[in-house]
Amino acid sequence: MKFNFLKNTLASVLLLGVSVGSASAAIIGVDTTYDFKLVADNDFALFSGTESNIVELLYQNNFVWGDQINQNNTQFTYNSASPNSYIYILALGGGGNQENISGMINGVKITDINPLWHLFTIDNTVLPGSTSSNIASGAYSVQISDLNNLIDTTTPFWSDTPLVQNSTQTVIQRAGFGTGYTMPTSNGLLLKYQVQDFNINARAVVQDAASVPTPSTFAIFLLGLMGIGFTRLRKTAP
Fold first, then answer.
1. Between 20 and 30 A from 145 (CA), which of 9, 45, 68, 227?
2. pLDDT tens for residues 32-80?
3. What is the residue extent of each domain of the chain?
């Protein structure tokens, strides 16, 4: 009788410990930092989002194009479990006779992939607060809600016709990426890519070890329950 009671107690303890460990396991994403370099004549911003909408600002440029070229170590952080599986690039022209964007993300040139795209005329009804001067100086900061409103109210929005690449405009040549995309004067160009286009590790997950009891914690838990079992055995002994 004593042996059966002890055996059943130990089996219950082990089963409980296994269930606690497996039930408390959690899945989280991994934050990874990615390098990028974009140069726009005149301004740009980088976002992540879902297939239908822009969700998060990854980087807002605040420099004129000459200083953009001199910028080093521009980076953004992406969580591998993020539901934002698209990268959006917004290029804005400040009113000059050459408007363009070129560059690379995580070592991949933006002209190496054919993105979905939308070209639009910049004005205060589309981008409130925007002016030729604050775009040209890099001082304009776009609001995600304004871009999503543009996406939601324009049908059809995205074009999949391959964009013509340019290698002759001054800023594209000085940026050093070989080719870029151009837009008419005082226009905006919104580009849409999948994160995999830039070898960004999306949807990879790892086990959150912090949520699983450590071996020492589990050992103390096990010994405590065994002690309770032995105490009960002594109390029931003749």
1. 68
2. 999 999 999 999 999 999 999 999 999 999 999 999 999 888 999 999 8
3. 2-25+212-236, 31-198
Q: Comparing 17-21, 41-45, 186-190, which segment has the lowest mean pLDDT?
A: 17-21
Type of residue numbered 174: R
**49 CA to centre of own chain:** 8
